[in-house]
Amino acid sequence: MLRLTPILLALLYGYAMFRFSAWRMKQQLDAQSSELADPKLQGVLRALARALDVPRVRVLIHEVPTVNALAAHDGRVFITRGMYDKFRLGEITAEELASVIAHEIGHVALGHSKRRMIDFSGQNALRTGLAMVLSRFIPVIGPWIAGQVIHLLTAKLSRADEFEADAYASALMLKADLGIAPQKEMFRKLDKMTGNRGAAIPAWFLSHPKSQERIAAIEANEAKWVGDNA
Fold first, then answer.
1. Hey, where are the domains in the chain?
2. CA–CA dist 87, 24 (Å, integer)
3. What CA–CA distance (Å, rounded) separates 223 from 184?
4. Does the predicted TM-score (pTM) go above 0.70?
5. Alpha carbon of 59 to those of 33, 130, 151, 208, 220: distances in Å?
6. How far apart are CA 120 and CA 14, in angstroms?
7. Which of 91, 94, 127, 197 is most deeply packed, by most CB within 10 A?
């Protein structure tokens, strides 16, 4: 029983972290968000809704200045105020913003958003449990090794999720008759934002694959789908 204690404690800790993280995120999003109601975006949102066969696509604005978008564990889709401001300034087109929304819808549809919340809590639990076990055998660097193992595992899962959501967004954009070009152009524009000296990296890119890798994957899917339909 004593041997199982660290594992049981880690599982209990992970569950508690999941519940707390979900509650805290919902409270924060509820307090700092409002519904997106821009007439200039209604056309692309209706196109996405028709492609999904739903009455409407609901998007909220999260009042933070970073350029980002997210899918919450409860299925809601958000763009940040920073992302929306780029659209209002004409730096991002309606179709390009639609590709971002389609990507986040992909995270919801594929179960990524809920799993990420569980992963975030679970990785803390795993790190704690693994550190407790390794510290018995490697007292000094055991916790550090545990952290590196969990980081590599979660980074791989995150990259896979992004490529899957990109593919979902491409298919949705094609079905909505918006095309894949805006999706690729969106990545190029966001990539340029990080290329300016001294510019802050948008949160969109944190722990995400490189833009060129994502564009190449999108084009590979496009070529495959065209070939299959030929």
1. 5-229
2. 29
3. 14
4. yes
5. 10, 39, 31, 22, 29
6. 9
7. 127
